[in-house]
Specification:
seven-stranded mixed β-sheet; alpha/beta; 11 helices; binds flavin-adenine dinucleotide
Length: 438
């Protein structure tokens, strides 16, 4: 089995990685990625000239525009993270005439809505949504966004049968419970929305850049950013930090470096922000030559298994290749905690991941369902798959008006895509409300 690993390809930092061309897997920054980012290989472009940023994105046809009237010079906001919260926030800022630069440590957009490219032994290309398999919504603002993405062909409803599987009775149950809400997926992969938003007018996206330092310049009333090697990334009027690792001690545990944002600099906020505990999991990617026809559902939660909690059939989603049948299984949090407790937060070795893949697959076979041997099998660790708490209430993001700093992400609202979108929207609206002061 051959896998495209980091280091096989070097992507120039400021290149936007397109789906069709992308020769590498696209992953957000997780513990393992914090470690393995080979920033030395990455050429950092340094400071862009002012002129490059002084283009106007003002489009009189764009609705809901809240133009910055007191200071018409292009305003610049840095968004850290190209997951769904950062991408939604960046898109809304740009629609309001703000010049946005997204910095993303991974090689492409999506964060925990990434899709992963793998190469099988026979050189077959396989794609997996190895993070969020789908999303739902009950929030009207989020639903409005989904309608717009549907109209652009970025999202479609995943209409299949869903339910639960009871590991003790070995029966499918609860068809209603899992099947009630509409389930949406990105087309052709879960990362499609983030990819499209990152390329909208007014947004410059820089992948493979891990922000290592955020400093507030009191005299200039602006932020200066540097990457993890201390290289200058430029000055900005405002900053959006869309990942908890920007202020979390986990950043230090994994990288040995202080988190990019020193909360002591922002005394008012420091009291509001607490360390966000996280829930890990493993994803197991499987590809089969033939459909698993004994399984009547295309997505089901798994009750009463110590190891497995969810299974989704990736190739049954709209817009996916059906040349093989691909499933993604999710481990239980307890199983992942056990492994991390023993092995620590370091990047798991290929041998360790292979053992985990075997163990999870054996559990899948123990369902008693007729499961043939896959021609591709690989595990991925998500060290911070889900935040265990929500840090805000109605505000949906954390905001320092004077310093123009917004902190957003699913951890502010709820541990899902819907919560992340709502938080990104809230962060953008904070800038709009005070854009005349930027
Ligand atoms: C296995 C799994 C299954 C899931 N299942 C579901 C589901 O069924 N339904 C659902 O709704 N949700 C699900 N989720 C949760 C959902 O994926 C997340 O809630 C959502 O994607 C979070 O988006 P976000 O923008 O808040 O964070 P993220 O997607 O994590 O984005 C943050 C981004 O910031 C980047 N970053 C961090 N620090 C830096 C830095 N210093 N410099 C540059 N970049 C940085 C990261 O690389 C990352 O790309 C699942 C998640 C996982 C992992």
């Amino acid at each position: 089995m051959r896998t495209v690993e980091d280091g096989d390809f070097i992507i120039p930092v400021f290149e936007n990685v397109e789906d069709d061309e992308a020769p590498v897997e696209e992953e957000p920054m997780d513990e393992e990625q914090l470690e393995e980012e080979d920033v030395d290989e990455v050429e950092v472009g340094g400071n862009e000239s002012e002129a490059e940023f002084e283009y106007s994105t003002h489009d009189p046809n764009v609705k809901n525009v809240d133009w910055c009237t007191m200071n018409p010079i292009a305003t610049k906001v840095a968004v850290i993270g190209a997951g769904i919260s950062g991408a939604v926030c960046a898109s809304n800022l740009a629609k309001n005439g703000i010049s946005v630069t997204i910095f993303e440590s991974a090689r492409g957009p999506g964060g925990r809505m990434s899709r992963r490219r793998e190469i099988a032994d026979d050189d077959r290309e396989l794609y997996f949504d190895h993070g969020a398999p789908y999303f739902t919504s009950t929030n009207t603002d989020v639903e409005e966004m989904i309608r717009r993405w549907e109209a652009r062909g970025l999202v479609a409803e995943w209409k299949q049968n869903f339910g639960s599987f009871d590991f003790i009775t070995k029966k499918f149950v609860n068809f209603e419970k899992e099947g009630l809400k509409r389930k949406y997926v990105g087309i052709p992969g879960m990362n499609s929305i983030c990819r499209a938003l990152c390329h909208e007018p007014g947004i410059e996206s820089k992948f493979g850049v891990m922000v290592g330092r955020l400093e507030w310049l009191e005299n200039e009333e602006s932020w200066t950013l540097a990457d993890v090697n201390g290289q200058d990334l430029g000055k900005f009027n405002g900053v959006v930090a869309s990942d908890k690792s920007t202020f979390s001690q986990r950043f230090t545990k994994v990288t040995g470096k202080p988190p990019p944002l020193d909360l002591k600099m922002i005394p008012g906020l420091a009291d509001m922000i607490e360390e966000v505990p996280v829930r890990p999991c493993f994803a197991l990617m499987l590809a089969f030559e033939n459909p698993l026809s004994s399984i009547p559902l295309k997505g089901f939660s798994i009750d009463n298994s110590q190891l497995l909690s969810w299974a989704t059939c990736d190739s049954s989603k709209p817009g996916r290749s059906t040349s093989s049948e691909r499933w993604v299984l999710r481990s239980t949090e307890e199983y992942a905690q056990g492994i991390i407790g023993r092995a620590g937060l370091q990047k798991p070795s290929n041998a360790a991941l292979s053992e985990i893949a075997d163990e999870l697959f054996q559990e899948f076979q123990k369902t008693g369902l007729d499961i043939s041997l896959p021609f591709f099998k690989k595990a991925h660790r998500w060290g911070s798959a889900f935040p265990a708490i929500s840090t805000t209430k109605d505000e949906k993001c954390i905001w320092d008006k004077r310093k123009k700093l917004a902190i957003c992400g699913d951890f502010c609202v709820s541990p899902d895509v819907e919560g992340a979108i709502a938080s990104g929207l809230a962060a953008a609206s904070m800038f709009s409300q005070s854009s005349s002061c930027l």
